[in-house]
Amino acid sequence: MPMTVDSREPLPLVPAPTVARHLGAPGFTLNGRVAVTGDEAAVETVRGFLAARTGLLLGTAAEGVGIELRIEPGGAPESYTLISDAGGVAVAGADAAGLFYGIHTLIQLVRRDRDKWLIPAVRIEDAPRFAYRGVMLDVARHFFPVETVCAYIDRAAALKFNHLHLHLSDDQGWRIDLPSRPELTRRAASSSVGGDPGGFYSAEDYARIIAHAAARHMTVVPEIDMPGHTHAAGIAYPDLVETPVLTDQMRADAAAFASPLPAEGVPYTGIVVGFSSLRIGDPATDDFVADVVTDLAAMTPGPYLHIGGDEALGTDAADYAAFLAQATRAVAAAGKTPIAWHEAGAAPSLHPGTIGQYWGFVSPTGDMDAKTRAFAERGGRVILSPADAVYLDMKDAEDCPLGLTWANGPTSLHRSYAWEPGSVIPGLPEEAILGVEAPLWTETIATAADIDRMAFPRIAAAAEAAWSAPHARDWDLFRVRLGGLTALWDAYGIGFHRSDDVDWRDDDA
Asked: pTM higher than 0.90 for the full model?
């Protein structure tokens, strides 16, 4: 369906809705006399966002025309409709999440017209393509305070993402305080890449993040990466890990990145991967995994717990398979659905229903696709995170001051958009795809400003891949729609990169 206000300019909506029609009539004028009514939580959300966008503080007592917000059960989960004309605006969600997403569509529509604020006359019907729409923030390579994580939640939720994957442990640091294993944060949380300060989340901090996310209809997915990426765990519990296994490739990577190599018992501040491993088959390791999984599951209300499983290059293949079988069973025993990176598909005895997360390329190499299909063949589903499309830590151009280039070189905005989730893994049916996730690894990213610089605008391309129906996706229209969000992102204080692919337009001038 066309998404046009007139024949010249698409509606400034990202991700693209399923159906959006201009009604060919005068729009709705926002002013101080407009009231917002309906669902109480939604009313306060709209008033807050409109105040940030326009400076207007709208009332809540209905007097004539206004904005009506309501929940009308019966539609698809997270779906909504939005109708606006000169007589008012009505947003109806099939559930609270759908109403929330309809509100963000409403906010994107707001435009200044000389001395007035207008919402065009439109009818929108919208629902998500995939149930899981995620962003991942790596807080292990560099640690970020609760306020920064919550700000990222706000930014992602506005683009209709509904999961936040927190990468809580890696070789460089352990970031979550667990009651059964206090040495993890006491001894292994103070380091980061480059010798930068570390840190960790207390149980109260983690609960604040979860509550902030839940208020924005976002589920937190914690990850403890195992059996590799465990050097920090070994700083706290040396008897649980093997001696680092170094290869010629790791030495070459260390030289290329001017990164130190790991040393047994010394906190790691470099970015080489694949050298660490838990000591598999040791009863003490089994106890450690059970303790960590049980504690984290008890702290996490969401249904998922991610156990990593990637880049375990220092782990024997048979040991790796045995460990993943045991770890996924431990997660299930704790009442959660396990998620693991796609390498875990090689383990034949994963707990049935384990979800696989694919981080290979848009065109799979080697046996990446077979390992990924294995999850669906065993009753699980798949989250797609192709690194050369949605890894937000990849440079967007050769001269980008941050980021890496290992995922087939720099990832431009165009490349981050021009992929189709249903075509990545041959033989994987659409119903086996749980959703799309855009990870942000932080080897080179140390501040909130760095997060904004690398995530925006490419996070919008990932949002559209996750939410929008295939028929609604169009690169040329996306570039125009994205440019229409310039003033809104400025109002939100997002320090986004002004990609040359987009004509950024400040319509509030």
From this structure: yes
